[in-house]
Amino acid sequence: MNYLAHMFLSCSDEEFIVGNFISDFITNKDIHRYSTGIQNGITLHRTIDSFTDTHPLVHKANALIRDDQGKYAPVVTDIYFDHFLITNWDTYSNNHISEYTRYIYDILDKNMNLYPAQLQSIVPVMINDDFLMACENEKRLRKTFQRVANRARFKNNMNHAYDNLAANYHILQELFTAFFPELIQKVKQFCGD
User: Fold this and answer.
1) How far apart are CA 4 and CA 13, in angstroms?
2) pTM, full prediction
3) Minimal CA–CA distance to 81: which of 170, 14, 11, 177?
């Protein structure tokens, strides 16, 4: 899952939100430096990724685009799924999405001192760019795929990723709609709900 889904699945807990957000920037040897709540958020992030990466419905989504996206199919699918979370937001939340993203940005901003230095330098830019909405529409998706392409280590076809979405839109949306409630249930177990 991509940023919006990770934040949404953070058990409505500020420390979980922070830990979930910084997880990809933290090595196992550095986890002990954080509070128990933030450590739980880091663990939650990894639980979400593991559940997603091994789920048969996600494998089906990846298979739809694998011929074109190759090893990056899971990365592209994560972005697609954030798009579907945005477009179906009212199904999963009672809060307006702009209120929710502002709430998350406020938490991320006020906890800046807890982030690794490399993350501290980019978070203000991310917030200014409204990064949780980076998968909102075609224009933003194309920009997101270009960013991923620029950071990718290997040859990729990110320039086709939006076209892959458009060609398989309804099937991918159905896969997301079937998968996401299962992920929510997995997280509820983690959160103790």
Assistant:
1) 15
2) 0.94
3) 177
Contacts of 66 (CB under 8 A, 6+ apart): 73
Q: Do 43 and 172 form a contact (C-beta atoms < 8 A)? A: no
165-172: list long-range contacts, CB under 8 Å, 24+ apart: 165/80, 165/83, 165/141, 168/64, 168/65, 171/64, 172/61, 172/64, 172/77, 172/80, 172/84
- Domain spans of the chain, in order of start: 3-191
For residues 133 and 115, what is the distance between their CA atoms, to the nearest angstrom? 22
In 10 A of CB 131, how many CB atoms? 22
Query: Tens digit of pLDDT for each residue in 24-63?
Result: 999 899 999 999 999 999 999 999 999 999 999 999 999 9
Task: Dump the DSSP string for 12-37.
Answer: T-HHHHHHHHHGGG--GGGGGGS-HH
